[in-house]
Amino acid sequence: MGESHTGHTVRIMFEASPIAMCAVDADGTIVRANPAFRQLAGEESSLLELLHDARDRAALAASLRDLASGAQRTFSAEVQLAGEAERWCEISGVAMRGASGAAMLHLVDVTARHRREAQLRALAECDPLTGARNRLSLHRILAERLAAAEPGTLLMLDLDGFKAVNDTLGHQRGDELLIAVAEAIRDALPPGGVVARLGGDEFAVLLAEEGTPASALGTALIRRVAAAAARIPGAPRVTASVGITRLRAGHDLESIFAEVDLAMYAAKRAGKARCVEAAPADPGAGSSTGSVLRVLDREAEPPADGGNGRSYLA
Length: 314
Known about the structure:
Strand order of the largest sheet: 7-8-6-9-10-11-12
Shape: elongated
Low-confidence stretches: 283-290, 298-314
Mean pLDDT: 85
Helix content: 25-40%
Oligomer: single chain
Radius of gyration: 29 Å
Largest sheet: 7 strands, mixed
Number of strands: 12
Structural class: alpha+beta
């Protein structure tokens, strides 16, 4: 009598719980589900089919097998649910014994929390003035690509003449120019390109290996920077010096930024408003950094000293 009463009470609690609950077999077949579960997940008969990502389905299947075999007694995971709307759910499970299934699962909708966390991550990696990525974000993306040995090219742009905008027109106009430059760079990027503001008047662009050549893009960006400044009434002439380097085996964050920084300053020394690319040096050339800097282009015409194509050892 007592056991029957307890079982009845448990069933009432199961059905009335505001928490989505279901009992499943070891293969993920849903044996029983309460109304809260059906409201969250619908009438799907397999728990695995509720998940968006194949990797999550495989991980959940492994956890259910472990519960059924006794290898573990509980598990917890955060997964994305299948469907057009992006929804996230925290699933926790405990092993059961008997005809009611191998495991009892609780599902909690954590979509709102997941979105808040995603927004906070995005804000943490965004330059608040221009909307471009910030240095932290670029470092993370670059580190991931270097770790995966993915090809790519990094461009660094430093604005020539920007200080005169602040000095003559004020910081508000200077901010307007930085916003316009970031937008001009974004508009010129090929698919998969990333733009970041590193600080002050310094920007970086990360490209995939395929697509527009970095030198052609760098030249286009110099022109776009000049055009953006020309649209601000009374602004002095502003261009950009561009350093370029390719991601190579042996690069780490420190070495790739040192290399592209040297290339950018070489562009300034060569007369500004032009691109300089760092390329692996001939081992016999005597370069202390293992790279050679080559002037590639100028904004509209070759340098007055005829130096287009000159090489500098860094």
